[in-house]
Amino acid sequence: MYGSWNFVVTLIVISLCRQVLGFWPFDVLASSDSPDEVYDTSKAKRIAIIGAGAAGSSTSYYLQKFANESGLEIDVTVFERSSYVGGRSTTVNAYDDPLIPVELGASIFVEVNTILKNSSEAFGLDASNAETETAEILGVWNGHKLVFTQKEGGWAWWDITKLIWKYGWAPVRTNNLMKKTVGKFRKLYEYPFFPFRSLSDRAFDLGLTEVTAMTGQELLAANNIGPPFSTDIIQASTRVNYGQNLNSIHGLETMVCMAIEGAMSIKGGNWQIFDAMLKASNATVLLNTAVDVIAKDKGKYVMKTLPNNTTSISDIAPQDEEVFDTIVLAAPLQYSGITFEKDFLRHTPDEIPYVNLHVTLFTSTLPLNGAYFNLDPGAEVPTTILTTLPPDEVPADPRHGAGSTGFFSISTLRTLVNPKTLQKERLYKIFSPEKITPEFLTNILGAPMPDDLNTIAIDSGDAISWYYPHEWNSYPYELPRVTFEELELSRGLYYTSGMESFISTMETSALMGMNVAQLIVDDYNQVLEVDNSMQKVISEQQGQEVEEL
């Protein structure tokens, strides 16, 4: 009898531990119809990842890595509704020539982006100076005049020694503040701060909520950094990177904008990093496959995809309905189009405003028109223009942050050869909050444009020979805040996009993917450890009872 009582007590204790620990991939025991239905440790755990961008690809890659290290068997399927891998990191072909890819989305990563840098090296990808490194002259335009110019601009313009003569010690103070802030953030990669189950808690632990709680303008003022350096240089950087001004973007993202040392990009497109991650993960990748409905039944997730013509990297067509143990939503919920059957979510992410960014690519033999920027005839014209606001202009609404300049940046990326005319042409990229008009292009190039820009062709004889516009929901408005989205929306349903209101970059999305991958593997291993302990206790108690009999 004593042995039987110990057996009952042990089961009660283990049951309580299960409830207290709370780190479960799914609610098997709590939702089972039969007491005999237990966690089956003999089968590979099925994991679905929704989204093949930076976060989804990183999740898949690190899931395989961490699972292999712990001896866990997993089966991963990645669903991507687009026809390509990379999410907002993607390229288009100049002149419609696949040999001339141009970054349409995320263009660069930097030296401190450990995951992207190390991955590109591990996969043998050609990382070189960012595509705007070749810019000859950079200018900052406030709608009336160029408030700053520098030769050898591009992403190499943040050169403290060249800025001190004009702005005094403000560049030095900015660099010190940036290093201090980014140093705190980089602890998220390391034990004991990695992995983290709450981004809000970790940000608080590291003292980063002190920086996210205030605007960039407030943070800089508190550190004795003000105009004209803050408005001429730092605000030009927040605008080109995030389409936002210092009076609205939070302090942490402001400092991230100034961490541009060692800017680089992958020849042929940064998306190749994420494509390589997916291939290395051995996951089944289903492109052109939109997840429509997610339901939960007996601790498992039932996922339905929209019926369409599906192309997959692995040549395996998706089923209309599949069952998974764990799901990772690696895309903003508000744009996913997913319906959740029944109310099983314990947390629903807030819908937050994203910057509606227009990216316009075009080629032309013409340089930028100096007269538009109020330059004297014969004066050197910058090849890349960043923008800021004039001193008397402060938009109250972040959505109108471009102000009177009307755009955030114009970059001359590089020189190309027109395959039809064989003339050398400049490849331009414009970031703006509104669609670019023929009148605007006429003004900045000093040559007439057709009323319909879509009629432009390589051999049409127009001032522009190739034209490609695109509209993105590119990144959130990084408004000050001290809490961030939960990583688990329900037991076993993980969410990565809460990172974007903290820091929105390819690297930080990849970091969140790596973090979620570690949490999933830890959760599975914890269940296995407890189940093995239970089986051991049961076997020992049964043996003791046999001896007593």
UniProtKB/TrEMBL annotation:
Segment forming the signal sequence: 1-22
Keywords, in A-Z order: FAD, Flavoprotein, Glycoprotein, Oxidoreductase, Signal
Residue span, Prenylcysteine lyase domain: 152-527
GO process annotations (BP): prenylated protein catabolic process; prenylcysteine catabolic process
Names of required cofactors: FAD
Family per similarity comment: Belongs to the prenylcysteine oxidase family.
Name of the protein described by the UniProt record: Chloride ion pump-associated 55 kDa
Organism: Hyphodiscus hymeniophilus
